[in-house]
């Protein structure tokens, strides 16, 4: 039996023990930022706070936020609190909307990350006897290597496939017989499609658990994945600014939200508009402060992910609800706030629709307009234009009732929507740039 096959003591610690550990680690992390990270020290000084001002966990609300622009302003290595000779790994975002955000790791950071990913895979039902097929992308993206190192730390055998080359994915799953797969939920559906294209039943594969993250997904998509692949699909959460995957994970025995590894990340939920800290149970933006990061001891990082904190299930560590979306991914269509996940949930209620859709936003005049393109299932293709128009009108009505936004639905044939090999692109913004 591997070291991480059994729960770690902190997972069953009392609330008092957890809060004491958090306060000690938070004090040390704030001191590390003050002493060794000039950009963070400047933010604290500008807010007239000092690490010594933290007497209780509630005092953290007095400290300033860190945002993605702070990391971009420090590009490439200005957010490292250790000299470069101590940095052993560098990851970065894609930088599609500007300079990428760069994340550095000491060997100590890598060791903690590997341990937390091992904990996450074990929580999902994994053990040292499993074969883990990693279909997250490798490279500057943190997903692939995060799952890889965690599975190895658990003692499992790793198949480092990465994303893409879907036909080969099927061959390796068939030949190597992995029991666990890590992938984005949208790519798992692409894998299921490829099984079917090859005339194979994915429900007969060796896979029994999928650990899915890196993009928001609905309960309806979970149901679809589980039905098509015949496995348990469990939710996972992480972000590169904290370390990558391994921030929160769902336990297989409860399936009731993601347990946040509070011994390493202190959570707060804030009002996205005012920044005020909200009580547990209230929905808002998740803010995380890493407690043990050596290379990047950030303070109150705004994730932009919308969720709420819930009590732990049989443990002191709290849970976060499935992420609804990102505050910066929210569309405002004629005064109505719209998240892609809301549209997805409505479409999933119509059995004739496949789980492939894309939202297109245009501005032909003064006002924004939303159109929804969604595939039908092969066995449910409309028999004619009248049938298609009726289905589109029904979907438009349901979206208006449940989401509150008027949109145009366009039903398209199977295979029309581009398939994802990583994070799915749900929104195409065709509005003119200012």
Structure description:
This protein is α/β, with parallel strands linked by helices and 434 residues long. It is built from 10 helices and 21 strands. It has helices at 15-36, 38-46, 68-73, 107-123, 143-154, 166-176, 185-197, 219-229, 340-348, 385-402; strands at 89-92, 102-105, 131-134, 157-159, 180-183, 209-212, 232-239, 244-250, 258-260, 265-270, 284-290, 301-307, 309-310, 319-320, 325-326, 331-333, 336-338, 353-362, 369-376, 408-412, 427-429. A 9-stranded mixed beta sheet has the order 4-3-5-6-7-8-9-14-13. The protein has a 4-stranded antiparallel beta sheet with strand order 10-11-12-15. The relative contact order is 0.11. The mean pLDDT is 93.
Give the SSE map.
Elements: H1 15-36, H2 38-46, H3 68-73, E1 89-92, E2 102-105, H4 107-123, E3 131-134, H5 143-154, E4 157-159, H6 166-176, E5 180-183, H7 185-197, E6 209-212, H8 219-229, E7 232-239, E8 244-250, E9 258-260, E10 265-270, E11 284-290, E12 301-307, E13 309-310, E14 319-320, E15 325-326, E16 331-333, E17 336-338, H9 340-348, E18 353-362, E19 369-376, H10 385-402, E20 408-412, E21 427-429
Parallel strand pairs: 3-4, 3-5, 5-6, 6-7, 18-21, 19-20
Antiparallel strand pairs: 1-2, 7-8, 8-9, 9-14, 10-11, 11-12, 12-15, 13-14, 16-17, 18-19
Offer a concise description of the structure.
The chain is an alpha/beta fold.
Q: Which percent bin holds the helix content?
A: 25-40%
DSSP summary, beta strand count? 21
Let me know the largest β-sheet: 9 strands, mixed
> Going across the major beta sheet, what is the strand order?
4-3-5-6-7-8-9-14-13
Distance between the termini: 59 Å
Unreliable stretches covering 5 or more consecutive residues: none
Please report the number of helical segments.
10
User: What would you call the structural class?
Assistant: alpha/beta
Shape: globular
Overall pLDDT score: 93
Indicate the radius of gyration in whole angstroms. Answer: 22 Å
């Amino acid at each position: 039996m591997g070291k991480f096959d059994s729960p770690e003591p902190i997972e069953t610690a009392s609330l008092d023990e957890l809060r004491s550990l958090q306060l000690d680690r938070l004090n040390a992390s704030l001191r590390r930022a003050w002493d060794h990270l000039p950009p963070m020290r400047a933010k604290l000084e500008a807010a007239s706070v000092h690490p010594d001002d933290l007497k209780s966990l509630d005092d953290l609300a007095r400290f300033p936020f860190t945002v993605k622009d702070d990391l971009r302003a420090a590009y490439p290595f200005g957010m490292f609190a250790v000299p470069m000779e101590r940095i052993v790994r560098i990851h970065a975002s894609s930088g599609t909307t500007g300079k990428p955000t760069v994340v550095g790791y000491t060997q100590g950071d890598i060791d903690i990350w590997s341990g937390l990913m091992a904990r996450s895979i074990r929580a999902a039902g994994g053990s040292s006897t499993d074969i883990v097929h990693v279909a997250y992308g490798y490279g500057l993206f943190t997903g692939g290597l995060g799952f890889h190192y965690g599975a190895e730390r658990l003692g499992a055998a790793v198949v480092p496939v990465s994303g893409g080359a879907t036909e080969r994915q099927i061959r390796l799953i068939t030949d190597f017989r992995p029991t666990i797969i890590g992938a984005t939920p949208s790519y798992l559906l692409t894998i299921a499609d490829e099984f079917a294209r090859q005339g194979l039943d994915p429900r007969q594969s060796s896979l029994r658990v999928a650990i899915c993250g890196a993009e928001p997904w609905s309960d309806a998509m979970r149901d679809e994945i589980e039905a098509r692949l015949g496995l348990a699909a469990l939710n996972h959460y992480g972000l590169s600014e904290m370390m990558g995957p391994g921030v929160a994970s769902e336990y297989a025995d409860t399936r009731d939200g993601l347990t946040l590894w509070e011994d390493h990340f202190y959570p707060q939920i804030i009002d996205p508009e005012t920044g005020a800290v909200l009580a547990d149970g209230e929905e808002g933006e998740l803010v995380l402060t890493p407690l043990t990061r050596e290379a990047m001891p950030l303070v109150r990082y705004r994730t932009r992910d919308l969720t709420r904190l819930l009590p732990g299930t049989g443990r002191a560590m709290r849970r976060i609800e499935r992420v609804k979306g990102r505050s910066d991914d929210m569309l405002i269509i004629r005064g109505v706030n719209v998240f892609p996940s809301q549209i997805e949930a409505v479409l999933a209620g119509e059995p004739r629709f496949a789980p492939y859709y894309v939202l297109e936003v245009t501005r032909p005049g003064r006002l924004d307009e939303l159109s929804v393109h969604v595939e039908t299932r092969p066995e449910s293709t409309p028999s004619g234009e009248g049938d298609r128009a009726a289905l589109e009108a029904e979907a438009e009505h349901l979206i208006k009732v449940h989401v509150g936004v008027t949109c145009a639905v366009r039903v398209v044939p199977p295979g029309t929507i581009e398939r994802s090999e990583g994070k799915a692109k749900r929104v195409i913004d065709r509005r003119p740039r200012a």
